[in-house]
Amino acid sequence: MNIRRYLNLLREIAFSQFKIKDQSTVFGFVWSFLNPLAMLLILYAFFSMRMGAEIEHYAIYILIGVIQYNYFATATSTAMRSLYSMKQLATSTIFPKDVLVVGVVVANAVEFILSMLICVVIACASGIPISWAVFMLPLVIILQAMTVLWIGFILATLFVFIKDLGHIYEVFLRVLFFVTPIFYALSFAGNGLPRYVLLANPLTHLIGFSRDIIINGKPFPAAPFAILLFANLILLLLSIRLFKKFEKKFAEYL
Amino acid sequence: MEFAINIKDGCKAFALERYHATMFRAIKRKILRRPFSAQHFLALQNINIEVSPGEKIGLVGDNGSGKTTLLRTMAGLYELSGGHIETRGTKMILSGFGLGMCDELSVEENIYLYGTIYGIGRDDINKNFHEIIEWAALQKFVGAKLKTLSSGMVTRLAFSISRHVQADIYLLDEALSAGDKHFKDKCGQVFEDYKKGPKTFVVATHDMEFVRRFCSKALWLHKGSQMAFGDVESTLKQYADSKA
């Protein structure tokens, strides 16, 4: 399949996914931002006095974490079920099935980008000086989309064969919410094992990069970004290979 | 000799799963070194056919005879469990009209979505957009959501779009089972035009009249086995006699 046809197909799939997501609700897209906002209010109300006492601009700090976590959780879960939810299409038509996974990731990325933009506007309105470093935010967004994509490919492949992965992943996401510095600082974990667990979580770094840009007004450190980018590239290629290896079996097992 | 589809000793077996695969069972079987499913069901066995480019094959047989499995195997959606298959040229498979369309999207958006899924370029859709709408007689419904259309209208729309799909091999699964007489007549005209063309067709159908009118050869499947392949009249007669 040529690249033009692939991109056409990706655009149509992503557009349809994006449109049908909130079509039946009165507020449409607004819901996808109200969700992190509600989360922010709850976390702020409970933790601002203690955990947030030493964190500057604690509300924006939480908001960035919640938006990035939400994109990760929603996009990977939807990507996992993408082949299954479009089962009839996946089993009865000839086209590269990976476009269904990529389409879901892209459709969710549109909301993610809009939410991050709103977050920058709120940060600006609340008195945080926005520096030129904000132009580096798209790099963080791309890196996070890459992370979501390779995890999405692996989950979508496994979910075709093992359905209880859905339940396991739900539990994993709940744990992940607390093992990501969303409403606490990295220093809260101390210097022992918990700190290393947090550092092994790519979301810790991705959220950290955005906080550097939006709250601290400085570019993120280049070395960790480069390492994460390189690791994500390798993992993305490996996950595509895994997906392609099993693609011929999907129609039979879905 | 040139061929469009060639299958030698084609077999397709499906595992008979008594339970859903769960992680616990997968690990248990791995530890006990038991294969996932010992029992298999042969959906296709000993299929030997060669289809030349431009031939129109009518695929007949009772429900459950393996017609859909054979079409999906030709499409590359299923892998053969045994034997060999080779196809030459681009393929499209159509199993039921409207597959891939979204209820929540408008008729216009669905034309682009459905057309793109079946490989029609955006430029071609733009060029033929009004013709697609007119053929389906849906001029008043361009902006309407698909869910507001009747199933007959959706079928008309899907058929109208699929006329613009460009492929060398067309694999149609019960594609003509839906629609009223007027719609079937319109579709018949489209197939009349295809009949003279160079495209290869394999059409699974229960409509024997259609096979007589459109096809140059017929293939009769029964419980996954190839009972007859060749001349339309003699194959259909054998099939009809088997039911008598």
Mind explaining what this structure looks like?
Chain A has 254 residues and is mainly alpha-helical. Chain A has one domain (3-14, 32-43, 56-253). Helix content of chain A is 76%, strand content 0%. Chain A is built from ten helices and no strands. Chain A has helices at residues 3-22, 30-47, 58-85, 87-92, 98-125, 137-161, 165-178, 193-200, 202-214, 222-253. By secondary structure, chain B is of the alpha/beta class. Chain B has a single domain, classed as Rossmann fold (3-Layer(aba) Sandwich). Chain B is built from eight helices and nine strands. Chain B has helices at residues 23-32, 67-75, 107-117, 122-135, 151-162, 181-196, 208-214, 232-243; strands spanning 5-15, 40-51, 56-60, 82-87, 91-95, 169-173, 200-204, 217-222, 225-230. A six-stranded mixed sheet of chain B has the order 5-6-7-3-8-9, with helices on both faces. A three-stranded antiparallel sheet of chain B has the order 2-1-4, with helices on one face. In chain B, 38% of the residues are buried.
Descriptive terms for the model:
heterodimer; A: 254 residues; mainly alpha; 10 helices; globular; B: 244 residues; alpha/beta; Rossmann fold; six-stranded mixed sheet; three-stranded antiparallel sheet; 9 strands
Structure in a nutshell:
The complex is a heterodimer of chains A (254) and B (244). Chain A has 254 residues and is mainly α. Helices cover 76% and strands 0% of the residues of chain A.
Bin the strand percentage of chain A.
under 5%
Q: What structural category do the secondary elements of chain A indicate?
A: mainly alpha
Q: How many independent structural domains of chain B?
A: 1
**Tally of strands of chain A:** 0
Shape of chain A: globular
Note poorly predicted spans of chain B: none
Measured distance between first and last alpha carbons of chain B: 38 Å
Largest sheet of chain B: 6 strands, mixed
CATH superfamily of chain B: P-loop containing nucleotide triphosphate hydrolases
Q: Tell me the greatest interface.
A: A-B, 30 and 33 residues
Instruction: Provide the low-confidence segments of chain A as ranges.
Output: none
SSE run of chain B = EHEEHEEHHHEHEHEEH
Helical run tally of chain A = 10
Distance between the termini of chain A: 23 Å
Number of β-strand runs of chain B: 9
Quaternary structure classification: heterodimer
The first-level CATH class name of chain B? Alpha Beta
- The tally of structural domains of chain A comes to 1
